Amino acid sequence: MEAQLAQLLEVVRWFDLTAEEQRSLLKERGHQVRVVTAGGHVGCPPELMRQLPALGLVALNGVGTDKVSLPLARERGVGVTTTPDTLADDVADLAIGLMIALKRRIPAADAHVRAGHWPDSEMPLARKVTGSRMGIFGLGAIGSAIAQRARGFGEVGYASRSGKPVDYRRFDSLSELAAWADVLFIAAAATQETAGAVDAEVLQALGSSGVLVNISRGSVVEEAALIAALEDGVIAGAGLDVFIDEPRVPEALRRLPNTVLTPHIASATVETRAAMADLVLGNIRAFLAGKPLVTPVQ
Q1: What pTM does this model have?
Q2: Which of 155, 176, 201, 246 is catalytic?
Q3: Is 50 tagged catalytic?
Q4: 246 given a catalytic annotation
Q5: Over the stretch 249-274, which tens digit does the pLDDT of each residue have?
Q6: Torsion over CA of 284, 60, 47 and 285, rounded to 10 degrees?
Q7: Distances 226 to 246, 262, 263 between C-alpha atoms, Å
């Protein structure tokens, strides 16, 4: 993608610059910047956007827009694009993988064999996957893809802002969904409404045999409450691909044996990243040619 970008525009790798180099660039050439492209989990902070007077497009390589101030972009006349309909399958696959890894204790079993413990000791029993109740918070494209896979294991329920034309059981609140579910998948978009939605009350409702899987954004879960719930046995475990302060993950989460942690890799396959890159490039080409954006958020 970067090689093709370089054929369209001069490319500056912002995060390769020191703080002093960033300040110098903004002072000397900030008025020349027309496009910012970044992962959805990075976005374009408001303070940076305000220093780019010629900015016309923020082309996100992802579907989350929580790291871009859409009101500011609208006020400035800056287009914002994402890469929808490219990554739902991969994200859903990883969500199911995290669930199975948790309930069947796959990482612990792998470590048991690698450490040479098998001849001397047996692994503790795991928990069955098939027959579990699958709760999904947020039934957009990713949540729906998770539901399609999860229904092969057991009953599916969901909670979202509005009802969907599906035959899954709908719950009025996240707490009610958590109380019903054995596995709670977090697939809601990160917004002001969903910030900290998975709190101590929701985790208490999920219960001591329940597991949490978050492939949305770290901000949707109250991380301190989750750590306490895992340490105290309030819930059985958590599979996490996202964290509040990525890439810094709390040591408490890293040392807990009832977690499976991945470094925000839900969409990280060769095939999907190629499709995402094509969309990013398509949006940038359209912007430079003065044509309608391919996948505009606004």
Answers
A1: 0.89
A2: 246
A3: no
A4: yes
A5: 999 999 999 999 999 999 999 999 99
A6: 0
A7: 16, 16, 18
Of the residues 41, 217, 222, 223, only one is catalytic, namely 217
- What domains are there in the chain, each with its CATH number? 2-86+269-288 (3.40.50.720), 88-261 (3.40.50.720)
Task: Return contacts of 4-9, CB within 8 angstroms, 24+ apart.
Answer: 4/277, 4/281, 5/37, 5/281, 5/284, 8/281, 8/284, 8/285, 8/288, 9/34, 9/35, 9/284, 9/288
Question: Using alpha carbons only, what angle is made at residue 284 by residues 83 and 84, rounded to the nearest 5 degrees?
Answer: 10
Residue in 264, 271, 273, 285 annotated catalytic: 264
Cα Rg of the chain (Å, integer): 21
137-192 pLDDT, tens digit each: 999 999 999 999 999 999 999 999 888 999 999 999 999 999 999 999 999 999 99
Neighbours of 116 (CB within 10 A): 8
Give the mean pLDDT of 59-69. 93
Q: Is the pLDDT of residue 238 over 90?
A: yes
